[in-house]
Design goal:
Number of strands: 8
Strand order of the largest sheet: 1-3-4-6-5
Helix content: under 10%
Number of helices: 1
Structural class: mainly beta
């Protein structure tokens, strides 16, 4: 069986960070996603609210960098939760998403950080500059952003290219 969910949206509330008895971080929040469509010429928008849970270092990173309204891409798996309501005694249930990989989508100027973060199955964590960035064993925060200087073009505005046509494979 296959259980995979990918969502892009905005956090509906600040992250609630707790620690389990063994010291592992558990961070909970919710994400709002929306879909725009047209029915009989009338434009409509549908919003879906989904509870999400981060475990381990990814929960700590999310708590450090994300706030209510932060745009995020999460990849994870659906989880079905059941409990008994203590006030009414009724059985309750809901689906939520256990986050395995996240990417912060806010621009750096808005207080967010761009980069991907995922939790390895062996408990290690990876942080990189993109969704499928190469793995690093230790978390390092993103470097401060500085725009590189534009490349200088030759006087005649044509780039100098030294190509040996014998090396072209086609």
């Amino acid at each position: 069986m296959y259980n995979k969910v990918i969502l892009v949206g905005n956090l509906t509330r600040d992250i609630e960070l707790r620690y389990s008895q063994n010291g592992s971080a558990i961070a909970k929040t919710a994400i709002a996603t929306s879909r725009k469509f047209t029915v009989n010429g009338e434009k409509k928008e549908e919003t879906c609210f989904v509870d999400i849970t981060f475990f381990g270092r990814s929960g700590e990173v999310a708590n450090q960098y994300l706030r209510k309204g932060s745009k995020i891409l999460v990849e994870g798996r659906l989880s079905f939760e059941q409990w008994v309501d203590q006030t009414s005694g009724q059985k309750r249930s809901k689906h939520s998403v256990i986050v395995e990989t996240m990417q912060m989508l806010d621009s750096r100027g808005e207080g967010g950080s761009q980069g991907g973060y995922n939790e390895d199955s062996d408990g290690g964590s990876n942080y990189g500059g993109g969704y499928e960035a190469p793995a690093q064993k230790a978390y390092t925060p993103p470097p401060s952003y500085s725009k590189p200087a534009p490349a200088r073009m030759p006087e005649n505005n044509l780039p100098e290219i030294d190509i040996n046509e014998d090396e072209i494979p086609f």
